[in-house]
Amino acid sequence: MSLPEQVPLSASAGRFIVRVARADDAAAFHALVIEADGALERHAESPEASRATLERVERSLAGKASDAERGYLLLLEDCASGEVVGCVQLVCSIGLDQPFYDYRLGKIVHSSSRLKSYRCHEVLYLCNDLTGCSELHSLYVRRDARGLGGAALLTKAAQLFIAGRLAEFAPRTIIEMHGVRDPDDTSPFWEAVGRHFFKVDQRGAERLVAQGRKAFIAELMPKHPVYLSLLPESAQSTVGGIHPDIAGLAPLLEQDGFHFENHVDIFDAGMVLEAHTRTLNGVANSREFLAGAGEPADGAQRWWVAAGEGEGFCMTAAPGSLAADRLILSPDILSRLGASTGASVRALGTA
Amino acid sequence: MSLPEQVPLSASAGRFIVRVARADDAAAFHALVIEADGALERHAESPEASRATLERVERSLAGKASDAERGYLLLLEDCASGEVVGCVQLVCSIGLDQPFYDYRLGKIVHSSSRLKSYRCHEVLYLCNDLTGCSELHSLYVRRDARGLGGAALLTKAAQLFIAGRLAEFAPRTIIEMHGVRDPDDTSPFWEAVGRHFFKVDQRGAERLVAQGRKAFIAELMPKHPVYLSLLPESAQSTVGGIHPDIAGLAPLLEQDGFHFENHVDIFDAGMVLEAHTRTLNGVANSREFLAGAGEPADGAQRWWVAAGEGEGFCMTAAPGSLAADRLILSPDILSRLGASTGASVRALGTA
Amino acid sequence: MLTIRPAQHSDLDALAETAARAGAPDVSLPNDPRLLGRLIAQSEDAFAADIDFPGEEQYLLVATDDGALVGAMLVVAAAGYPGADYSFRNETIIHASPELGVNHRMYALTLSHDLSGFTLLRPPLVAGDGRRVRVERALVQAALAFIATQPARFAEDLIAPLPGMVDDDGESPFWSAVGSRFFGVSYREAERLALGKDRSFMAELMPHHPIYVPLLPVGAQNVLGQTRAGYMPTYGLLIDEGFEAERYVDVFDGGPTFCVKRGLARSIRVAQKLPLAVDGSIGRSEPECLLANGEASRFRAVLAPALRRPDGRLATTADAASRLELIDDDEVCCVPA
Amino acid sequence: MLTIRPAQHSDLDALAETAARAGAPDVSLPNDPRLLGRLIAQSEDAFAADIDFPGEEQYLLVATDDGALVGAMLVVAAAGYPGADYSFRNETIIHASPELGVNHRMYALTLSHDLSGFTLLRPPLVAGDGRRVRVERALVQAALAFIATQPARFAEDLIAPLPGMVDDDGESPFWSAVGSRFFGVSYREAERLALGKDRSFMAELMPHHPIYVPLLPVGAQNVLGQTRAGYMPTYGLLIDEGFEAERYVDVFDGGPTFCVKRGLARSIRVAQKLPLAVDGSIGRSEPECLLANGEASRFRAVLAPALRRPDGRLATTADAASRLELIDDDEVCCVPA
């Protein structure tokens, strides 16, 4: 396992906070979508779309969202500049308004004792198995802020956020990984499969999904299972793969309890990671403490620590010392979290 | 969750040991199969079949078994009488010689924005997804020895046994639960589905499977997915269910890390529990200690504790005190485990 | 004399009345004057156009007797055009296990587009009087004669669906067991939508995987491929014409869809093109034949006494010839009874 | 005079030689004297038996000219009997999205038992000389005349598979792309097994789910439904007879399986039963027709000059009549050229 991001991350993650997006983040979020140039594929590149996303977060925080739309947006903020440099989105229940599609990778064994033949075929089933699951998506860190632990901070923040509102989230949480692409940004899997069914290009198909216009998937996608063994080798090898740019992310998520459970993306066959929400590291192993102000001891353990609820949720990584039932954090960190002495914080020790 | 077995179990489980079956257990095991009257459905009711099972265990212990046949049989022995009163079987990799079939329960959502219709259908796919997994099966306790924690002891023993030979087991371990049956012992699911395809009765079909004659499943089973919503309500409600006789077992297994992951038995639709082998309670949380002899302190923690390797594997539940890196067990327990002071034991604290 | 011709705008009132008398929405004709008016206009365009291959055309024939409209029948050039026509194919799957001594046939209903583009004959709608079978047969024969004389307008395969069984409450046991599970709407509503242009909702809502027949409730199995009692005469008529109804059923009500290769439909197979001879000696004693003129927008067919003479000409009455708008020696298409 | 009759044991050597000259295992006839001998015995039993409905019978016809065996053709009464006959149905699936403006046809190969029980015509095997097309056509027409005169022995549907394309190395691109992935044996071996009685391994090994054609390698797509160059004459012959090859292909090599409703096969459709008249004036100037005698175990057919006389009798030569074992006024089945 290669963990390119992990080493610098714990050390410099303190440079950032993660907080819940507010209505007045619309412009900053729109700028992030534009900068991502398609990487935030679920988000249309329009100011209106960004505003709509933030309104949905507001309704969710106010308890006024429907089951289908309830979801949150967490932003990565550079404490020095106050700039928004990354994000992750949480959806409480996917697929309740329009179907959520993916492929499930199954096995079919054909054997004949008479022919002494035994063959195990892998087969892709178009399915909506993940309907009702919670999802993390749109995990993104701006190019110029990478390598500093922002992605890890966002994933841990998401888990701590979920831990604080567990009743709103489903028993299972998923995250889709970008799949393998050729140097020219085409996906070998798309070339071998999707192209024949859609007659539009991959980006075009993804854009329609971003706009919520998913009827075409039902209309055009293969209704029958696809035998993997009949596809070109180049496509087979990318099924359940991960884009090299995010190769470091999967091990982080696996350490937190996500597993590849044989679901892959319908367009690029990228792996979907799944976890039992309650067993996620940040849910099962985080604890609530009362915050204390002070200077943590030299060599004190580092913590992922979150304060505030709902729209006040704010999270960072920082050293902290345990004293009695209190977690002692530096006054600077406390103020950054918008918390004061005696406030309740949720913290997860860095391993 | 009802746990009828759990309370008496920890207290009286010390009455039993669990050990690896030896060649000279053939007669005792055959007697158990006969007594089970079909409940040990994977085992043909013949002395030859029992002998063959034990020979397979011997070959496995000797490292001479093929990947397809490698497996172990653990026996529950009543220490007072020396009688074999229960068993559990471990298979390292299922489905490598003949296909291992089950149904996977998937979801298909049909929605039409024009008709404002949204329907989530559950669908059963005949599959061999679990090919290559490890399996616990034939978990059985004799009628007259029930209610004393034998089943729990067997499941914990299996986990400790796996922990000691982890390289031989697959990343995923499964266990099939008996499904719901009517008072007359017919399964509503079989009546609604299997009967139409097999034209033999359920017991007959299960017996063929026990004899390893599985070709008929490929020949006769439905190749196309079955829509659950089109089946009678009585059959739908039993999919993923558990026979009331073993209702207490599922929560025990779930506490140890098994989850229902949407696979069910092809005959009675009983749930299949699955676990990532490395995260099983008895694998992830058991530790190796050096054994010490002595009287554990009053109120000492109780442990699931196993000694010996391979054919010497023996396990029981007992109180033990930790002293330095040693686990202090009573001389009686040590002798029952066939271990002496300084021997290595693997132990898991009872929660 | 029973005469069959393309519907025209002036037929609208009589057609609407006939449709209304036949009751609720029907697979024959829409029971809605506005839709009927549109259909007549489409049909007039279709008959008038030069057509090289079957497309969206719908041909509406009406039967009149003594000037009164007594029946109508719709022929759709290409079912589902330009998209798909949906049906369930009743698939036979042989399940055999030599070891178990089992060898039986399973049936499974598979959503199919097989019938897309086939020429579709809607069941004739006839004003309910004693002459129903006669008028129905004449309409079907006239439609087939039209197809035989205008082959470029139609597909090589013909299909004819009949409505499926309903129970005493007008509910379809097949719909209750299958369709209702996949649609969020009532049977009536689904049927109405299915007759419309945009059937994309079918792709969105219908099952993609085959449905095993033996797993369905017995009530639904029993009506599979069965039509309503009122349609048994039409059923017999289609069988006489060589149609077969083993393989396809309606996705909503499980009613039979009859199929025949064009060349195997009896009326097309036995149809003869002969020179006409007006003959005063022809009268009631001669057998009645369906005669058609082979035209498109001026298509006419009659049920008239006729006789093939030894000289190879077809003798019929002056009245019949005049209704066919033919004169001596013109070619007439004759379908012997 | 080209004469066609049931194979008999004395034909074995000549048949074996013809099969051997045609090369490796072939869908026409087994290239194995032992199997051929068994086949002849089965065929003799089939021709001799009273049969009410098609079953396991195999009818082997041979063509002789001047006493020499020049060709043979096998007719299987019910394909796959008593189990299933396997084929791929080339399913058309219409994928339409009004919103995307997409409307295209997808093709998918579905393992099907549809052809089970259909009467199967193996391609004629003809000693390779210049008269091949003539002998092949006569064999096919004779087989169809036999079917027309003995309808209870055969199914309502006829099928005729032709071998699929192979590349220069004798490898089938379709097999490489599909079959080889599902079988652990070579193409030759699979073909040999498939011709055998116990085909249960097909259920065990073949894909249950449809295979989307556009996802296959182009080389495999290109040979789908194509036959080898050497079979193009047979291909043309079947087309002339009204067979169609759009829907089914062989599961191993993707070769076409031709289908026709019995009543639509040209030779059956145009066949006429007429009283025979031996007529000395008939000679080379009259067109050759296929004539058959309508018998079972004494079935005979010849290719002979013949003429339908104004008196409605079929005039032919004394030689032809004698080969047909018919005399004046016996009924003869005539298939006009």
From TrEMBL, chains A, B:
SUPFAM superfamilies: Acyl-CoA N-acyltransferases (Nat) (SSF55729). InterPro entries: Acyl_CoA_acyltransferase, Arg_succinylTrfase_AstA/AruG. It holds the Pfam family AstA. GO terms for biological process: L-arginine catabolic process. Keywords: Acyltransferase, Arginine metabolism, Transferase. One of its GO terms (molecular function) is arginine N-succinyltransferase activity. NCBIfam families: arg_catab_AOST. This is Arginine succinyltransferase. It comes from Aromatoleum tolulyticum.
From TrEMBL, chains C, D:
It comes from the Bacteria. GO terms for biological process: L-arginine catabolic process. It comes from Aromatoleum tolulyticum. This is Arginine succinyltransferase. Keywords: Acyltransferase, Arginine metabolism, Transferase. The keyword Transferase applies. Coiled coil: none annotated. The keyword Transferase applies. Signal peptide: none annotated. GO terms for molecular function: arginine N-succinyltransferase activity.
